[in-house]
Amino acid sequence: MGELPGMVVTGAAGRMGRLLIEAVLASDKARLAGCVVRPGHAWVGQDVGVAMGAAPVGCIATDDPLEAFARAQGILDFTTPDASVEFAALAAQARAVHVCGSTGFEAHHLARLEAAARHAVIVKSGNTSLGLNLLLGLTRRVAAALDADWDIEIVEAHHRMKVDAPSGAALMLGEAAAEGRGVSLDEMRDSGRDGITGVRRRGAIGFSSIRGGSIVGEHDVIFAGEGERISLGHIAADRGIFARGGLKAALWGQDKKPGIYSMLDVLGL
Q: I need a surface site. Which of 20, 105, 153, 253 has the fewest CB within 10 A?
C-alpha cells in the first residue's frame, strides 16, 4: 500500500488552520505534509504540535509555500481571496488538489482561479459542511417548484469577526435559488436594505446578514407566499465540520481531471 496523500494547511496558525491540522492528524486516510504561515510568524521553524501547545507531530511550520507544496498532494486553504489566488498558482505547479474555502472573491480573483484550474483540481466552496450542501440541493428544488409569487429571503448569522457579507454560503444559497428559478442572481439580488426602499420587487432574492458574538454559522432560506411560509435552515455548532469537509474534498479530488469543482460534486449531489 502506498504512502497516504500528504496535506498542506495554509494559514496554519489561524482558527480554521488549527482545525484543519487536527482533522488531518485524526484521519487514517491522509498525513500532514506541511503547514504554511505568514512570513515572520512566530510559528516559523517550530513543530506545529508544540506551537499548538501539544506534543510534537513531526511537521515544521514554514513561511515558504512553494517548498511546502512541492511535497503535497492536497492543499487545505481557508485564508483570504488574495492569498488563495497565489496558493492556487503554486498548487497548480505542484499538481496538488487545492481545496479553497476562502470567501469574498471578486471577478479578478475568480479569473486567476480559473487559470490555475486548467492545470490542477480546485474544489472551491464557501462552505464545506455536508449539511449546508444538502440545503443547497433542497433550495434549488423548492425554488424550481414555486413561482415568483413566493418571495425568497436568505438570512445568515456569523460571529463578529467575519469581514464579508453576505457570507459565501449565503451567496451559494442565492445561486441555488436562482438556478432553480432559471434566473440570474446578479439581476435578482436584493441586499443591504435601509431607509425608504419601496415595495419588494417581484422575483427578487433577498439577503440579510447578522454579525455578533461567537456565532459559528446559521443560514435560513425563507419562501414566503400569501398566507404561508416555508423555511429551510442549517446551523453549524462546531467549526470542525468545515475542516472535515475540506479534507474529504481533498481526498475526493486525487483522481479527478483539472477543473473547478464544488462540494456538490464531492458529495455526488
A: 153
Angle at 100 between CA 24 and CA 129, to 5 degrees: 65
Task: Please tell me the pTM assigned to this model.
Answer: 0.81
CA dihedral 252, 19, 209, 84 (to 10 degrees): -60
Helix-helix angle 130-145:168-181, to 10 degrees: 30
Percent of the chain that is helix, strand, coil (3-state, to 5): 35, 25, 40
- On whether 103 is known to bind a ligand per the annotation, the reply is yes
Q: Which structural domain, as residue segments, surrounds residue 139?
A: 130-236
Are both 77 and 154 inside the same structural domain?
Answer: no
Does the annotation count 162 as an active-site position? yes
CATH of the domain at 134: 3.30.360.10
Is 71 part of any known ligand binding site? no
Q: How do residues 202-241 score in pLDDT, each as one tens digit? A: 999 999 999 999 999 999 999 999 999 999 999 999 989 9
